[in-house]
Structure formats: C-alpha cells, structure tokens
C-alpha cells in the first residue's frame, strides 16, 4: 500500500499492486470497508480509513463461474 502526500495535506491512495492512484484521501477522510477498484490490474482492495491511519486488505477474487 502506498500513500503519496500532496502539498495541501491530502494524499493519494495508490494501488498496492501497481501503484496507480485510486482516490484522494483528505486529512479527515473516514471510510470503512470501502471497495476500491483498480482498473489497471482489475483487483479490488478493501480500504479502511480512520483519520490518518489507512488500512488496506486484499479482497478475495470473485468466485469463478463453473469452478466446481
Ligand atoms: Zn492496480
């Protein structure tokens, strides 16, 4: 997980896999179980933001149809 800070105190949350900027995070941004979708590597990253602490967890891949 990468966070790129900007001059105005906000930051960009970047995809932990490819580094693409996904969304902007303000100093007071809060979200819980936010599914951030990376269009580049087509993966979903579940993000929790509480104040300045940002947690990301891999979301399991969607079940493949007909896998059974
Ligand atoms: Zn990515």
**Morphology:** globular
Counted up, domains total 1
Helix and strand run: EEEEEE
Bound small molecules, deduplicated: zinc ion
| Head-to-tail CA distance between termini | 33 Å
Strand order of the largest sheet: 1-2-3
On the 0-100 scale, what is the average pLDDT? 79
Low-confidence stretches: none
For the secondary structure, the number of strands is 6
Class from secondary-structure proportions: mainly beta
Tally of individual helices: 0
**Rg over CA atoms:** 13 Å
What fraction, in percent, of the residue positions are helical? under 10%
Beta content comes to: over 45%
Oligomer: single chain
Main sheet record: 3 strands, antiparallel
Can you walk through the features of this model?
This protein has 68 residues and is mainly beta. It has one domain. The protein is built from no helices and 6 strands. The strands form 2 sheets. It has a 3-stranded antiparallel β-sheet, with no helix packed on it. A hairpin with a 6-residue loop joins strand 2 (11-14) and strand 3. The mean pLDDT is 79. The structure holds zinc ion. Zinc ion is lined by residues 15, 17-18, 20, 38, 40-41, 43.
Q: What structural keywords apply?
A:
68 residues, mainly beta, three-stranded antiparallel β-sheet, 53% strand, binds zinc ion
Describe, in short, the structure shown.
By secondary structure, the chain is mainly beta.
Describe the SSE topology:
Blueprint: E1 2-5, E2 11-14, E3 21-25, E4 30-38, E5 43-50, E6 53-58
Antiparallel strand pairs: 1-2, 2-3, 4-5, 5-6
The protein binds zinc ion.
């Amino acid at each position: 997980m990468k966070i790129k800070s900007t001059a105005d105190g906000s930051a960009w949350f970047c995809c932990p896999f490819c580094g693409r900027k996904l969304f902007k995070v303000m100093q007071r941004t809060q979200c819980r179980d936010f599914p951030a979708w990376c269009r580049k590597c087509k993966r979903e990253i579940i993000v929790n933001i509480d104040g300045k602490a940002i947690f990301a967890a891999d979301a399991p891949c969607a079940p493949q149809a007909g896998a059974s």
